[in-house]
Design a protein that fits this description.
Blueprint (H helix, E strand, L loop, with lengths): L1 H31 L5 H24 L5 H27 L6 H25 L9
Helix pairs in contact: 1-2, 1-3, 2-3, 3-4
């Protein structure tokens, strides 16, 4: 359970970074009255903050029988959130003037990894420790 809580806190800290960045992006958009970053802001907040935070809280409070599932799902969730958000940023704004194919690879691969992480979380929910009455 201690190792599981370590992973839970990693997710919560990761989510806090994304929450801060999401609010920062929102503040910048509001201050500049330029809402071009709206989809990126939304994904930072919804995927990077809310989803990852919810996973962290779940893992902190619900004992899971297979720690390996928690580790794999957590790692894939964090990689997917970063990949999807960077991919969206590159695709919508192309700030680095990079190849469009490369931008789409980040977007699609990041989103696909995130999709796998969500599916794994669904699987993990069937491996909870049963409390004895």
């Amino acid at each position: 359970m201690i190792q599981q809580r370590i992973w839970a806190m990693r997710l919560i800290r990761f989510a806090a970074i994304f929450g801060f960045l999401g609010v920062l992006i929102g503040s910048i958009m509001s201050g500049e009255m330029n809402y071009a970053l709206r989809p990126i802001h939304a994904h930072f907040v919804l995927v990077g903050w809310l989803s990852v935070f919810a996973w962290g809280i779940f893992y902190y409070s619900v004992p899971i029988r297979k720690l390996l599932y928690v580790k794999v799902q957590s790692i894939l969730g964090m990689i997917g959130a970063v990949g999807l958000c960077i991919g969206m940023w590159l695709h919508y704004l192309d700030p680095l003037n990079t190849n469009e194919t490369l931008n789409m690879v980040f977007f699609i691969v990041g989103g696909s990894i995130l999709l796998i992480a969500f599916f794994l979380f669904f699987i993990v929910t069937f491996f909870i420790e049963k409390k004895e009455n």
